[in-house]
Specification:
This protein is mostly helical. It has two helices and no strands. About 80% of the residues lie in helices and about 0% in strands.
């Protein structure tokens, strides 16, 4: 994902798309694109969480030395 996005913004966008899906407010033409976007956002969030976890672990290890 090339855009500048943070975790909070990604989660907010996911939540807004899910709300549209739950309320049946997406037409067939939008559905595929929105589902693809949610998939990209979820991958971004998972990556961000993984990177943050590794960073915290490295900080904690360096404090033990």
């Amino acid at each position: 994902m090339e855009e500048k996005l943070n975790y909070k913004e990604a989660m907010a966008e996911i939540e807004s798309i899910v709300a549209l899906l739950e309320e049946n407010k997406l037409d067939v033409d939008e559905l595929s694109a929105k589902v693809k976007r949610v998939s990209q956002l979820i991958a971004f969030c998972k990556s961000k969480l993984h990177d943050t976890e590794e960073e915290v672990e490295n900080i904690l290890k360096s404090m033990e030395e």
